[in-house]
Amino acid sequence: MTHPAVRARFGAPAPDSSLPFVMSVCAFGCAAAAVAVTSHARLLFDHLWLSGAVWAGAAGLGFAAGWGLSPLLKFQRRTLTPKFVVISLVLAFAAVWGVNSIASHIFMNAWDRFDAELGGPGQCLAGTPYGKDRASVVTRVAKGDDRMEIWPGGPVPEGTPKGYKYPVLTLKHAVNGGTHPLAPADDASRDLLRSYGCR
After folding, report:
1. Distance of CA 148 to CAs 153, 165, 178, Å?
2. I need a surface site. Which of 85, 125, 139, 172 has the fewest CB within 10 A?
3. pLDDT digits over 44-86, tens only?
4. What is the DSSP string of 124-185?
5. CA gap 75, 88 in Å, rounded
6. pLDDT digits over 159-181, tens only?
7. 144 vs 172: CA distance, rounded Å
8. Non-local CB neighbours of 84 within 8 Å, separated by 6+ positions
9. Which has the closest alpha carbon to 113: 186, 46, 179?
């Protein structure tokens, strides 16, 4: 038997109403999107309890969204059919996939951020000993240390003094899931970036 408040809001329900299914899909979709964002932002690994609260809040928001959209789309009066189920699940999957893609672009790991900002194709260090295709990256594991070292690689150009070694490039803000652009961690690294035309 339908609750009077539901009947008053949506009218007489269909025998197999799609409303409960839609509300469940919205809740699970929002929760899955929240899991994707918190994992990319490292919140899942560093603050598990806070992540759980975010997931629960997102699920509640999705549940409420399914309820709120029902008067507009008349889910209460729509019969739950296989076609409706498939379309709903595909849309939910596409939404979660989109959120995950956006989150992975915003909350990059240190190596991907170096590739996007300095060492990848089209960047100022591409084709140099510090480019992604030649260099090696070492990140610090000490808590509170956000630096990374770029160890140059590749052959030394002709005419270079014997025994010469390219200096190590040290960058800060190298935090997995961070949003701050990489920046030189010392004056030597700042001068090195300038010598290659970097910011």
Report:
1. 16, 19, 13
2. 85
3. 666 778 888 888 888 888 888 877 776 666 666 667 778 878 8
4. TTTTSTTSTTT-EEEE--STT---EEEE--SPPPTTPPTT--PPPEEEE---TTB-SPPEES
5. 12
6. 666 666 788 899 988 887 777 88
7. 11
8. 18, 21, 78
9. 179
What are 79's two structure tokens?
């019969």
User: The sheet that has 148-151: what strands, in order across it?
Assistant: 136-139, 148-151, 169-172, 183-184
Written as six digits, the tokens of 139 are 């990140």
> Helix crossing, 19-40 with 48-73: angle to 10°?
150
Q: Which two tokens stand for residue 154?
A: 């590749």
Place of tokens 């629960």: 56
What CA–CA distances, in Å, run from 91 to 74, 97, 150? 18, 10, 42
Q: What is the pTM of this model?
A: 0.62
d(C-alpha 30, C-alpha 167), whole Å = 47
